[in-house]
Amino acid sequence: MTGPLTCKGILDRVKTVLVVDDERNIVDLVRLYLEKEGLRVVVASDGTAALEAHARHAPDLVILDLMLPGIDGFEVCREIRRRGATPVLMLTARSDDVDAVVGLEIGADDYVTKPFNPRLLVARVKALLRRAEATVAGDGPVTVGALRIDQRRRLALVGDRDLALRPREFDLLVALARDPGVVHTREALLENVWGTDFPGETRTVDVHVAELRKKLGDDGPRLETLRGVGYRLVRPGPDRP
Hints:
- By secondary structure, the chain is of the alpha/beta class.
- It is 39% helix and 20% strand.
- It is elongated and about 55 Å long.
- The N and C termini lie far apart (52 Å).
- The relative contact order is 0.11.
């Protein structure tokens, strides 16, 4: 039997996952697979109960259905993000990208479309938890033009402006800023930032890059797209890239 996840291989202690969905069969399925991995699961069936459970249990990760009675999943995600950096994995019943893109823009870290493979869901949960727990010794500051990144404090500034990055946006920016001018493929970024066991799509990278561009603004270094290849962060001025 699988014991509780503990990481520095995965987790230091048993982690709590809040599952928010009004479909009982979905909740039971997700609970079954997560508890097999040694995770503690708490559940909520509507938006109000979800926010109460988040405040009461301080979960390490939230699995959040978008289509909830009362307060919908989008508003729940906004409120969770206002409270802090709890990773949020969205569930959406729609195959259309619109809900997923909107959810990522308001602060979710990843999404899974229903119907889903529960093993894939577990893999994404583990990847998000691993990234949230990751600590890398000896991470010094990174500077690219007006961009300054303090990895220890997880702070990114352009001039005096705090970019207020979400956890995954910060990790993606660090990956790009460590090698300014170097082209990173979407696949490499997905593996390096989201994890080797993350079965996600490169669309996830594209959405996060779009958000980074907005936050870097005109006064920060540029995030360039090389069509069909990937992305690179370029220094401003004549010495670019």
